Every structure is written in C-alpha cells, then in structure tokens.
Amino acid sequence: MATSKQRAAGRKNIKKAATAAKRKRTLTKLPKSTRTALARQANKVKRSKAKAR
Predict the structure, then answer these.
(1) Which superkingdom is the protein from (predicted)?
(2) Kind and range of the H or E run holding 28
(3) Are the C-beta atoms of residues 31 and 20 closer than 8 Å to each other?
(4) I need a labelling partner for 9 at 20 to 30 A (CA). Which of 20, 24, 30, 31 fits?
(5) What are the domain boundaries of the chain?
(6) Number of CB atoms found within 10 A of residue 45's CB
C-alpha cells in the first residue's frame, strides 16, 4: 500500500505529465491549411498501405 506522501507525489507527477503532453501537441499549433494538408497526405499513405495488403 502506498503512503499518503507517495500518493500525493503520484498525483503531482500525473499533473506534470499531462501539462507536458499538452505542450508537446504540435499539430494544434499549426495553421488549419497545414493540418488539412497533413491529414490528406496521411490518408493517402493509409490507402496505399491498405491496397498493399
């Protein structure tokens, strides 16, 4: 069983990890046109991979 200190530290670590993950979301910071272009390209690759199977 974890101590109360360990539980508090765990909660703090989870919060820190969540904020770091939010900060690293590059796609949301890009302009909409770039995002749609990337999505189109990703779909193209996805389709070609599906055909190869």
Answers:
(1) Bacteria
(2) helix 26-29
(3) no
(4) 24
(5) 4-52
(6) 10
| pLDDT tens per residue, range 12-48 | 999 999 999 999 999 889 999 999 999 999 999 999 9
Radius of gyration over alpha carbons of the chain, in Å? 20
Q: b or e along 4-40 (b: 16 or more beta carbons within 10 Å of the residue's beta carbon)? A: eeeeeeeeeeeeeeeeeeeeeeeeeeeeeeeeeeeee
Distances, alpha carbon 26 to alpha carbons 10, 31, 42, in Å = 26, 11, 16
SS3 (DSSP) at 24: coil
Q: Could you tell me the end-to-end alpha-carbon distance of the chain, in angstroms, rounded to an integer?
A: 48
